Amino acid sequence: MTTPAPALLSARGLHVSFPGRNGDPVARAVDGVELDIRTGETVALVGESGCGKTTLARSLLGLVRPTSGSIRFDGKQLDHSSRALKAYRRRVQLVLQDPSGSLNPRHTVYEAVAEGLRIHGTDGDERDAVAAALSRAGLRPPERFFLRYPHELSGGQRQRVVIAGALVLEPELLVADEPVASLDASVRGEILALLLRLRTELGLASLIVTHDLGLAWNIADRVAVMYLGRIVETGPVEEVLTAPKHPYTQALLSVLPDAPGDPVILTGEAPDPSRIPTGCRFRARCPVLASGEADRAGVAGACRTEDPAVLGAGPEPGVACHWARPRVSG
């Protein structure tokens, strides 16, 4: 059995909390996360809106300071001083969901891509670096796009400019927050193919934040399913998405167009990070508990009173579910 490569980015015991307003309870947006991303690996972080995945991504980028826990990059603890974060963000770049909102409408494509070089004061020829980044992002010949403005481009071209702006600094890790959510279906495949090609050609690691399990299937090596601030299932993408163990993952997959059987409609209130229940955090919406299946399996009491342990960060599959764990070990 081969030993997995050391993590490029790792989180251990990560918590991010925000104070409530007017005496409201503290919101535990990230509530104990262990996560590794290795060089050249693409990890998809999936879950509903409000589950904490964007806060987790922002914390890994150094944009939100953790309440507790640790983040390490290339073996070193993340330093939140301004100087250290500037150096860190050259190696770890963010690609946002909405390219129209990411690009200054008054800046040309050249200025948008060159901005990172100017901020970080890199050596070398700026024009050559901008041209190379645009070319890698699929905008060829790059010089044809230098003097264009965002409104003169299609949605797919704008997203490629955003990706080129990240690539120009030659990062080791991309964090992409819903990178194709705002694009037409005809363009989504092109951008996904581009991200896959960048992994192959440049050895880039990626964290893809998405609510779309179909996207995760097409692009990721591993998937981490997040619910109410915590990763509840993780493992190789083929294993998790073809044989999901956690009832939440099963429900997410059941509504995909090609999913077998009837969709599982989750009842109850949407997750609220200021009111995390005792026991399993999914229990109020869990169809296994509601149907009596957890009672028949003898785990209903644990579901209501015992918080499943935080999943480890390793590459092996894991599930934080009292009902699923006996079935996995058996």
Describe it.
With 330 residues, this protein is α/β, with parallel strands linked by helices. It has one domain (7-244): Rossmann fold. Helices cover 35% and strands 20% of the residues. The protein has 14 helices and eleven strands. The strands form two sheets. It has a seven-stranded mixed beta sheet with strand order 6-7-8-3-9-10-11, sandwiched between helices. It has a four-stranded antiparallel beta sheet with strand order 2-1-4-5, with helices on one face. α5 (126-136) packs across α6 and α6 packs parallel to α7 (185-202). The radius of gyration is 21 Å and the shape is globular. The mean pLDDT is 92.
Q: Which key terms come to mind for this protein?
A:
alpha/beta, Rossmann fold, 330 residues
In short:
The chain is of the alpha/beta class. The protein contains 14 helices and eleven strands. The protein has helices spanning 53-60, 82-91, 99-102, 109-120, 126-136, 155-167, 185-202, 213-219, 237-242, 247-254, 287-290, 293-296, 300-305, 324-329, and strands at residues 7-18, 27-38, 42-46, 68-73, 76-77, 92-95, 173-177, 205-210, 222-227, 230-236, 318-319.
Number of strands: 11
What characteristic shape results from the CA principal axes? Answer: globular
| CATH architectural designation | 3-Layer(aba) Sandwich
- As for the number of domains, it is 1
Oligomeric state of this protein: single chain
Quickly name the level 1 CATH class.
Alpha Beta
Summed over residues and divided by their number, the pLDDT gives a mean of: 92
The low-confidence runs, each spanning 5 or more residues with pLDDT under 50, are none
Round the Cα radius of gyration to an integer and report it: 21 Å
Helix content: 25-40%
The strands making up the biggest β-sheet line up spatially as 6-7-8-3-9-10-11
Structural class based on helices, strands and sheet pairing: alpha/beta
Count of DSSP helices?
A: 14
Fill in the CATH topology.
Rossmann fold
Amino- and carboxy-terminal Cα gap: 22 Å
